[in-house]
Amino acid sequence: MADPQDVIAALGAEGGEIDRLVADLDEEQWGLPTPAPGWTIAHQVAHLAATFKMAGTAAAAPDAFRAIVSRIGGDFDGAVQTALLPYLAEPPDRLYALWQAERAVAEKALAEVPAGELVPWLVRPIPAPVLAAAGMMELFGHGQDIADALGVDRPRTDRLRPLVEFAVRVWDFGYQARKLPTPEKEFRFEITAPSGALWAYGPVDATDRVSGPAEDFCLLVTRRRHPDDLAVTATGADAQAWLEIAQAYRGPAGSGRTPGQFAKR
Predict the structure, then answer these.
(1) Residues 175 and 134 reside in one and the same domain
(2) Looking at the structure, do residues 134 and 13 belong to the same domain, yes or no?
(3) Do residues 56 and 106 lie in contact, with contact meaning Cβ atoms separated by under 8 Å?
């Protein structure tokens, strides 16, 4: 598993990649539509700012976060959608500055959580490195939407490992989102890193297996590409069905992407 401090460092580095994508955009480009229906680049950055604001609050002020959760009940997704509205009301330069500020606060707060201490979150408290990995998932997914809107490719590194491990940890989210029974047997995941290293998880003798490049796996679990457009493969009926419902986030799955929407990798 990735070192906890490496996860925090990776979160900062991936946040920096978002900065580089949007730092020099003009006002018209901030309004470009992204593959997420109804969302512009500004929406994507506002969502990230709102999400990181909540993560920073959870890590630095747990009681304040618990009070927020008690007010919103179980509708975290709705709360985030509401929370992004003030950010959207700002002009692009101010939105960019707010995003950077929320990111800096969250990264610092997560890094300062003592080892082994849990941070309050949606359903249950979780370790700070796991929350940071969830942040990596947010950065990857929404960053991909921004990159797709701009028509650019992003460099991939082994910093994807915390996201891969997070997706394996929450492999059952897709079933939960659709109120489907989760298979009792464990899957074997064999994911090839950008460096060529093999990241393997789950029983070696598992009959259901998922394998493929780390970038494609992350595109799959963030639902930024349709399985048909990826080089992720599965062995076993349950694993094959999982490819269609895989997601590394709670709540509604969303429409995802359609087959052929993006060139097959």
Answers:
(1) no
(2) yes
(3) yes
